[in-house]
Amino acid sequence: MPATVDALLPLSFLEAVRGIDAPRDDAETEYVAELRNKRLGLSEPIYAQIRRYTQAARRSERTSYAEAVALARLIGRRTDAAAVFVTAGQHLARQAYATLSPVMRRTILLLPSLLARPLALRQARRLSKRFLNARITRIGSSLRLDVPDPVTLDAAPEERGCAYYESVLRELIRLLVGDATSIEHIRCVSRGESVCEWRADWRPLSRRARRTASAA
Prior knowledge:
By secondary structure, the chain is α+β, with helices and mostly antiparallel strands. It is 56% helix and 15% strand. It is built from 10 helices and 6 strands; from the N terminus they run βααααβααααββαββα.
């Protein structure tokens, strides 16, 4: 079990909660003070934690694995836990992708698919290791994400916490190469297996399609 995780991981949880709990219309905006007592994402402690993790992420610092697990379990008690984990996964993938240099991102977009995909794979491997404590490997036309110690393990019933890692993988592939035709959750630690594993089929897209996907 890792002792630490990148600060961006717990930050992605809290950013997702804040976004989902934000007032939806003018009527709700009038009652923000009252909503703060009812919605976790609007509470002062959450804002304070977001500030702390944001500063840590900017400095590329790491935080306690146990602290991230506690946050995941707090989210897992929500009725909309699956949606929060999906949103959080997308947030982490986008922020991780943003750490790549503009030159690298542009190179991947402009190169022909035959040259761009190996380069994208190297970046995906590096980002998954840094931000997820995970490993990405290629098997034929598929990518495999292996997570030995998922932070969201048993965070919510029916493996809803697993949606987090699937969402990260899907969004990262979309940003790097354009699309993932399908993603399967092959193995899970909660089922007594040694690792959580996702397998994604990724298809080559034209440079125009990859630019469109990355700009979305």
